[in-house]
Specification:
This protein has helices at about 1-30, 45-55, 95-105, 115-125, 125-130, 160-175; strands at about 60-65, 70-75, 80-85, 110, 135-140, 180-185. The chain is α/β, with parallel strands linked by helices and about 200 residues long. The protein has 2 domains: about 1-35; about 40-190, no CATH class. The protein has a 6-stranded mixed β-sheet. It is elongated and about 90 Å long.
Length: about 200
């Protein structure tokens, strides 16, 4: 009994030191924890530069089930892949989401493969989004290019001529548009690939 009592008192006397050591270890662990980087505390100019590194230079617009779909080419390990970009994947918080989407709309060139696609996509895009687009690239074909007056309001009857007329209407409404690239393939206009050919 005496030996057991001695052991108990010895452990009791050592417990404050053990607790102190444990507290020190816990304190050191807390100090070693890496704090999250406060990205939004950076100056706006630096944040915009970082957004530019993420944003593709050219976005290919197509139609998805729920709206428009944005795709871009990415080169990795000597190969080129087609990637889909959605703003929702960057929804870390409201400020970051708004800044990223604004940079995406104002810095990327939005490419449309036809006037019909542009009209269909613009119907799905809210005006606030269309007004943010600064650079647009459009492929024209002979069927879509006809001399016709610009309609007073958009038409959506599905014909190429109507799509071209409505495209003109939409483009005139885009007050923020700065550059417009028109892609014309002469083959689409009935020109021969080899002018010397007699076909």
């Amino acid at each position: 009994m005496a030996q057991a009592s001695c052991n108990m008192s010895s452990r009791h006397s050592e417990s404050p030191a053990a607790l102190h050591s444990l507290k020190n270890a816990q304190s050191q662990k807390k100090q070693k924890v890496i704090q999250p980087f406060r990205f939004l505390d950076l100056p706006p100019g630096i944040r915009e530069t970082i957004y530019d590194l993420w944003i593709p230079g050219k976005l290919h617009v197509s139609l998805g089930r729920r709206g428009i779909r944005l795709e871009y080419f990415m080169e990795t390990l000597g190969s080129i892949s087609f990637q889909i970009l959605t703003c929702t994947q960057f929804f870390l918080n409201r400020q970051f989401y708004d800044e990223f989407c604004h940079a995406l709309f104002t810095r990327s060139t939005w490419y449309y493969s036809s006037t019909t696609l542009l009209v269909d996509a613009f119907v799905r895009l809210p005006k606030s989004t269309r007004d943010q687009i600064r650079h647009l690239s459009l492929r024209l074909t002979e069927q879509s290019v006809e001399k016709s007056p610009i309609p007073p309001e958009p038409s959506h009857d599905g014909s190429p001529v109507a799509a071209f007329e409505t495209t003109q209407w939409y483009l005139r409404q885009m007050k923020g548009l700065q550059t417009l690239f028109l892609n014309i393939n002469l083959i689409d206009f009935g020109h021969k690939t080899n002018p010397s050919s007699d076909d």
